[in-house]
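Researcher: Structure prediction, please.
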Amino acid sequence: MAKAVEDELQLTASSPEQRRRYDLLMAGLDLLDQAIAVFDASPRLVTWNKALLRLLDFPESLVRVGTPFEAFVRFNAERGEYGEGDIEKLVAARMASARAFEPHYVERVRPNGRVLAVRGVPIPNLGFVSLWTDVTEQRRAEALIQEQNARLEARVRERTAELEKANREIDQIAEALRLSEGRMRLILDAIPAMIAHVDAGRRYRFANRAYAEWFGLTRRASSAAPSSKCSATMPTPRSNPISRTPRTASASVTSTHAGMPRAGWSMHAARSCPTCRSKAAFAAIS
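Model: Predicted structure follows.
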């Protein structure tokens, strides 16, 4: 139970109601998890609660009314609470801080690994109050969060590097495909044949130079133009033999004169349309 100097507080002369209130106050202090100690201006111990013995492991023989604050400091210094160093210097430094009667807050790790937050609050012209709080679990949780954040950041950096590498590889592949497509276009333009591709919507998607020049189309126009150029009925792709003339053997989706061209590639022989007398390409092989 928290102690007090009854003679100083004149409890012997107080009424039963005042004593009851005092006992109630001390019982309430004993329920706190924080350790509390009140020192007078000397500074000597005036009152405390049970948590002081539990958190700081002071012997009961030391914790009594009138014990100098220096005795507690020296006891801690001798058992290594303040780390290594000259005992007298460690004691002198803490006594100078206590006699300054200024608010202060520090955290220290005890030899047993517990982390204590120590707060000092001065009482003008009377002394000061010291409070000790065990913040071990909070600091462990904070350390765990920091460690997890560090791992997450490292993983994000690794994943970002992987994505950047993948993007570079994709860019390299895309560039290689562009170069390959460019080379293929050069080859198809150099072939003495008319080559074109028509999709299912009867739109030209590709036409080489010979095809475009034969039908008077620009390369851009041929990629969007409908595949039917005139209404003449031409032989079906399977009924036309492959032309062996020098200006033949061009690949096309279908004859541009066919009524319902099919999507795909086919071989054409250059002839004249018997209906409109325009140059055309007869499908030879689908």
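Model: The longest helix spans residues 136-190.
Researcher: Thanks, that helps.
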